[in-house]
């Protein structure tokens, strides 16, 4: 079952109104008519066109958070995913008409309920207005959804999605500058005609107050063309592709021509694909996509558009129009007019100037008011792998068996990768959920270093220094630093052993490993406060190394290692019942931590490594 059914609220029926009250506290320039759920500007500019929009709740920040200077004059909000009533819309028209002498423009997303209710409210207002000027209420319908093809849309037309927000902003900026109703209406219609949006979701959202539902999509499945009211998309993909391939598929639909895709070539014939087409790109978060992932989506979209000969004039990214807490995003392209066009009164620069104009509304995020297409390309990022350490000044210390030495390291790295789901599960219960992925990244880095012969089994000191470099770069975080410190200390003390040994090419001995491990643990203790028992990775590591130092009389190397492994395993298992004294585990509820009965993920990772190395 999806966990998206959890919500922060007083009561589902009150959630929309509570949100609107919070909005007017956030922006003192706004007023709220609670009865009709209308948010409007407190002191409207006189002598300007008023813009009104709205729709069901659940699309925040649309629509109410775009009310304010430079965008909308008012927004009317219905229940979650439900069109506002005619009486609500009539009240919004009445509230803004007191400050408008240039007429009113209704900007409506193309949904049957919205179109009917806004249209009826406009007709009723015209029939009852005191004079012809105040009766001048016009409507622009926005239908930018490319997922709904021409055949499926039929007479109803496509849905209105996040591209609607660009209509708000550009038309609102012109109204704020004193444009006439004819001008504002014409510009809004031009923008609406030249936008296209495509959405994708990894899961449907949950409506507050309804029963929790099982996940509608498999764990490795996504849905193309998902609507903002939980409507199913037109296709499911399983397993879902990489972000690069997914973005490419969406943009292929958005930029298709009527000839190549008669169902979705909505930007044709203006889109000519001759290297001179100019776009505004809007990347919209549908509710629950992390900012980390949003940055990746922007990168892939920009790279695809540039590689296909399109010019990007602006890039906007953020949360503009949501479907509650849907885990998904949409891409919107606004095709700008060509400089050679003479049949419209606006140039591409005119529209961009209106897009860039300041907006005193909380829903409009910052964007760079400049052309990213003329900025210098980013420099090639450095390779993920560290620059190989120079080994010329290192003494040679050969392992007793070169092949087995490298094989053991490979076994440990492979075991870490295989243990990722188990360790991730442990860390989800006992920490922040990243331990498995962190250790897996280290293991993968080690395997790449072996393949590149950076770990070759010819010099133990050089190989261990390479391991220290790899885990530092690939793992990161606290565990990466701890591992790197330990391996650096181990290499340092092995170097001392090699320099103090008489033969020119000394070989490793069990005693040398044991002594260097103990010294490396002392180095590690210089930089961490963790001491066993502490419910950290030092518990099994310390238990293993201490067991190496105290062999029983007559014991063999194999028996010493077997005993040390047993001690390490017991120490890792014992962390199930320990209170965390250091690390992130120390911040969580210790009673609940013990009740989970899971070992410390870092400690278990050490056990996995030791068992693969020597088991």
From TrEMBL:
The biological processes this protein is annotated with in GO are: glycerol catabolic process
Q: Mention one GO molecular function.
A: triokinase activity
Q: Region Disordered: start and end of each range?
A: 365-395
DhaL domain segment(s): 403-615
Check the record and name the InterPro entries matching this protein. DhaK_ATP (IPR012734), DhaK_dom (IPR004006), DhaL_dom (IPR004007), DhaL_dom_sf (IPR036117), Dihydroxyacetone_Kinase (IPR050861)
A single GO cellular-component term from the record reads: cytosol
Q: Which residues bind substrate?
A: 56-59, 109, 114
Q: What is the protein's given name? A: Dihydroxyacetone kinase
Organism, scientific name: Hydnum rufescens UP504
Q: What is the lineage of its organism?
A: Eukaryota, Fungi, Dikarya, Basidiomycota, Agaricomycotina
């Amino acid at each position: 079952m999806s966990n998206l059914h959890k919500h922060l609220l007083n009561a589902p029926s009150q959630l929309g109104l509570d949100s609107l009250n919070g909005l007017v506290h956030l922006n003192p320039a706004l007023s709220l008519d609670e009865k009709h759920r209308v948010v409007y500007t407190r002191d409207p500019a006189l002598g300007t066109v008023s813009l009104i929009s709205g729709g069901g709740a659940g699309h925040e920040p649309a629509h109410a958070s775009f009310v304010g200077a430079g965008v909308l004059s008012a927004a009317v909000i219905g229940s979650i995913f439900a069109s506002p009533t005619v009486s609500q819309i009539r009240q919004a028209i009445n509230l803004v008409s007191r400050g408008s002498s240039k007429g009113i423009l209704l900007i409506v997303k193309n949904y049957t309920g919205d179109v009917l209710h806004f249209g009826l409210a406009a007709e009723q207002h015209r029939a009852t207005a005191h004079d012809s000027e105040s009766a001048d209420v016009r409507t622009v319908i926005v239908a930018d959804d490319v997922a709904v093809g021409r055949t499926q849309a039929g007479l109803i037309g496509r849905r209105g999605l996040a591209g609607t927000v660009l209509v708000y902003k550009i038309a609102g900026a012109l109204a704020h500058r004193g444009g006439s109703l004819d001008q504002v209406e014409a510009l809004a219609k031009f923008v609406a005609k030249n936008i296209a949006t495509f959405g994708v979701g990894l899961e449907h959202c949950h409506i507050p107050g309804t029963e929790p539902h099982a996940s509608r999509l498999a764990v490795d499945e996504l849905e193309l063309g998902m609507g903002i009211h939980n409507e199913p998309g037109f296709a499911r993909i399983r397993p879902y592709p990489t972000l690069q391939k997914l973005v490419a598929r969406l943009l292929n639909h958005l930029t298709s021509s009527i000839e190549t895709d008669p169902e979705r070539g909505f930007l044709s014939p203006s889109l000519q694909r001759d290297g001179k087409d100019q776009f505004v790109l809007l990347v919209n978060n549908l509710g629950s996509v992390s900012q980390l992932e949003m940055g990746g989506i922007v990168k892939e979209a920009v790279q695809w558009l540039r590689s296909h000969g399109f010019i990007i004039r602006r890039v906007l990214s953020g949360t503009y129009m949501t479907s509650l807490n849907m885990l998904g995003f949409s891409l919107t392209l606004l095709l700008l007019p060509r400089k050679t066009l003479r049949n419209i009164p606006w140039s591409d620069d005119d529209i961009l100037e209106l897009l860039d104009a300041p907006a005193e509304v909380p829903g409009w995020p910052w964007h760079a008011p400049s052309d990213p297409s003329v900025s210098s390309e980013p420099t090639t990022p450095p390779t993920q792998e560290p620059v190989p350490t120079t080994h010329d000044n290192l003494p040679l210390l050969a392992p007793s068996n070169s092949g087995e030495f490298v094989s053991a390291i490979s076994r440990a790295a492979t075991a870490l990768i295989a243990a990722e789901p188990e360790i991730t599960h442990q860390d989800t219960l006992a920490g922040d959920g990243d331990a498995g992925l962190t250790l897996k990244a280290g293991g993968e880095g080690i395997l790449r270093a072996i393949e590149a012969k950076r770990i070759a089994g010819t010099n133990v000191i050089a190989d261990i220094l390479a391991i220290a470099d790899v885990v530092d770069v690939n793992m990161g975080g606290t565990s990466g630093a701890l591992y790197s410190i330990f391996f650096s200390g181990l290499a340092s003390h092995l170097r001392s052993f090699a320099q103090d040994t008489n033969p020119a090419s000394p070989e490793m001995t069990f005693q040398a490993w044991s002594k260097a491990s103990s010294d490396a643990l002392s180095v590690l203790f210089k930089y961490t406060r963790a001491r066993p028992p502490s419910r950290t990775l030092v518990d099994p590591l310390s238990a293993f190394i201490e067991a190496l130092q105290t062999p029983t009389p007559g014991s063999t190397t194999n028996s010493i290692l077997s005993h040390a492994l047993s001690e390490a395993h017991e120490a890792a298992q014992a962390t199930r019942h320990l209170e965390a004294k250091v690390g992130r585990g120390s911040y969580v509820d210790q009673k609940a931590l013990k009740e989970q009965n899971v070992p410390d993920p870092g400690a278990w990772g050490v056990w996995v490594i030791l068992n693969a190395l020597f088991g």
